[in-house]
Amino acid sequence: MTCSNALRGGISLVSSYLKETLDFMFPKSCSICGRLADAGDRFSQYEDFSLALSGNSSGLQVCGKCLSSFAPCEHDKRWFLCLSDPYDGDPFPGLALYLPLAYEGTVKRAMPAVKFGKKAYLARFFGCLLGSFMKCDSVHADLIVPVPLSAQRLKERGFNQAAEMAKPASAILGIPYAGDVLYRNRNTHRQTELKGTLDRIANVTGAFGVSEEWDLTGLTVIVVDDVVTTGFTLHEAAVALYEAGAEKVLCAAFAGNRQANND
Questions:
Q1: How far is Cα 231 from Cα 40, in angstroms, rounded to an integer?
Q2: Which CA distances in Å does 160 have to 66, 116, 167, 231, 236?
Q3: What domains can be seen in the chain, in order of their start residue?
Q4: How many other CB atoms sit within 10 Å of the CB of residue 177?
Q5: Which residues contact 188 (CB under 8 A, 6 or more apart)?
Q6: Is the pTM of this model over 0.90?
Q7: Helical H runs in the chain?
Q8: What is the tens place of the pLDDT at every residue in 97-125?
Q9: Helix, strand, coil percent content, the chain, rounded in steps of 5
């Protein structure tokens, strides 16, 4: 063994001991609930995936209790009509929504941390889960696109949580990610701020457009959002994609509870 190899080996050994010492003295807390992050042995594959996808560690720590709470609904309970309250004259009344998790418990506590706590790494983890669920259910498409934020909302938040979810889902499914297909024509109010169905419809009607650089003719497109309740936002995004020539649009969200008050 050369001196340089011996030196590298010694440094590696010291680093390993140092990490173990620091982990013992300052145990890591779960990024979701704050309890001791004790699920590292079940989390190594996600770390490898994060490194392959972005070149960086995920920055996420999870406890076993939170990790086990992300079990999806039964297979036959993951598909819905996109709109919770269908209306006469809907040009796409059969628009399908893939929804694997209920917006409750751990998921309900975690999502505000994504949106308002600026924890984009949580959104990426949820996107990994979403992609894994969809792969198990053999969901196929030609493109995955996220629901876009308005320029104002993007500036406030610093990232688009739907895009952060769609990217890892795209990698897992092997479906190209296209973040610049959809754009918002105007700023819209948060759906949570609007109580009436008509107000929610009016808020997002015509709010989305498709970039002229994209030809969607004959393509199947998955449009992804983080959380869904009434489905109006995803519905309007799908309308824009259909009007741009898409042959089929599937809507997908990480979680939803059509009775919950979320956007």
A1: 36
A2: 24, 11, 11, 18, 18
A3: 3-66 (no CATH), 73-256 (3.40.50.2020)
A4: 19
A5: 150, 203, 204, 207
A6: no
A7: 3-25, 44-54, 64-68, 105-115, 120-136, 151-157, 161-173, 197-204, 232-243
A8: 999 999 999 999 888 888 777 888 889 99
A9: 45, 15, 40
